[in-house]
Amino acid sequence: MPTTAAGEPVVAQGSDAQRWDVVVIGSGIGGLVTASQLAAKGASVLVLERYLIPGGSGGSFKREGYTFDVGASMIFGFGEKGHTNLLTRALADVGQHCATVPDPAQLAYHLPGGLSVAVNRDYERFIADLTALFPHEARGIRAFYDTCWQVFRCLDAMPLLSLEDPAYLAKVFFRAPLACLGLARWLPVNVGDVARRHITDEQLLRFIDMECFCWSVMPADLTPMINAGMVFSDRHAGGINYPKGGVGVIAGKLVAGLEAHGGAIRYGARVVEVLLEGEGGSTRAVGVKLASGETIPARRVVSNATRWDTFAGTPGSDGAVARPLMARPLVDEAHTPRSETTWRRRYRPSPSFLSLHLGIDAGVVPEGFHCHHLLLERWEEMEAEQGVVFVSMPTLLDPSLAPEGRHILHTFTPSAMEHWQGLSPSAYAAKKAADAERLIARLEAILPGLTGAIRHREIGTPRSHRRFLGRAGGSYGPIPALRLPGLLPMPFNRTGVKDLYCVGDSCFPGQGLNAVAFSGFACAHRIGADLGLNPWQLPD
Description:
alpha/beta; 540 residues; seven-stranded mixed beta sheet; globular
C-alpha cells in the first residue's frame, strides 16, 4: 500500500477519489500545456493550483479598472507558420485561439554611453540600425545574427516534442535529417563563443550580453545558443504579438481547452507532498497529498513547481538560497534522486524581482513610445541588485486594459530574496516604498514627468513572488552556477522517481513562455508515449 513520507497509509478522499491518469501540480503555462495536450490525447487529467487564478507568472490580475500582467508582456510563440509558434499550436490543439496585436519592435534599449537601439520587427531594418551604430562591425553583425537564423531554421523545420522519446527522434530525423544534425551541432554551444567569433568591439559584445540578459537573465557566455537562435530570430519571423485582453488570456484559454476535452482544474488546492510507493530504484509516484489532508491517486504525476520546490536539497552550488526561504519540498530527502544533487551543483536560482504595476496619465507618454524598454546606466551594474530596469506598457497595444486616458506601466528590476528577509513589518513597508521611489526616479530618464503622473500603484517584492507564485525564493528560474556546455546539462521531463515528471523553466529548454510551452509539449509527448496515447504520425 502506498504511504506518505511519515509512513501513513494513503486513502483517497473526496470527490476526486477516482484515480486520474495524470495529476499536474501547478497551472503555469508549462503545466497547462502539458495538461491540455494530454487531455486532447484522451487522458484523464487534473490540474491542482494553489492560487485563485491560472497562469503563474503568465497570468493577469485586475485592480480598479486596470488589467495587469503578472510578468512580462513581451510574448513569443504567436506566429502563424512553422513549428516554433508554440503558443498558437498549444491553443489550436484544444480548439482555442487568441487574438493578438503585433508589436513593431521587440525592445528599446537605453544603455550606457548613450547607446540606444530599438529592435525593429523587420530583420533587415534591425541589422541596418545596429550597423549604423557600429559600421566597423558590419560584417560581424550580419554573420552573428545570420548564424542565429541557422539555429532557428533547424528548430522551425521539425515539430518540437520530447527528446526523451526514441520513436520521435527516429521519425523527426527521417523527416528532417539536416535540421536534426544542425540542431545537434548547436546544443553544446553558448552565445558568447559565437559572438566573439565574429565581433571584436567590446561595446557591441556588451550589447549582445544585454540582448541575452533581457530574457535569460544571463550574459552571453552563459546563454545557450539554441535559446538565442529561437529568440533573436522569432522576433522577426513570428514577431512579438500581444494577446488581446492581457497575457492571462493565454492561461484562461488553455484551461477552457483542457475542460472541453474532459480535464479539470481545482483552485486553492495546495499540494504539499508527492505520494510514493516502493523503495530504492523501484520507488514510483502514485498520487499527491493536499494541505487539507486530502489525497488524490494518479498513474502519473507532473510537477510544474521549480525543481528546488519539488525535491529536497539546498539550492545552488554555494548554498546562497537556504531551505528556510522555501516551503517544504514535495519529495523528501530520502527519496530525492542523486541526479538532483548534481543539478544543484550546476544551476542556482536567479534573483527574483522588485515589480511595480502603475496606472499613469496617458499625457506623460510621448508620441511613438515603444511598448517594451530596458534601461541600464552602468555596464558593471548589469548583474547587480536592482541593476537592469525592464518596462512594459501593454496599453500601447491594447488600450482596453486601462481606464480611458490612462496607461499601464509595469516595471521590474532583479532583486534577491536575502535583501527582503528578516525585516519587521514597518521596515519591510519602508523598504518597499523607498525602493519603489528610487525605481520611478530612474524611469524619469525615458519618461519625464512620470512621478507626478502616477494614479495607481502596486508594489511586489521577492516575498510577493514567493507567496503568490509558490516559487523558491521568488526566483525567475535556474541560471548556471558555472560555465556549462549550452543546453546539454539541462534536465528533460522525466525524473529519477518513476512516474514523476517535471515541466517548466527548470527543464529543457529553460525560461520564457515559449520555452516552457516547449517543455509542456515535450512532457505531454513523453507521458503520452508511456501511456500509449500518442498518434503514430508526427504533427504537420
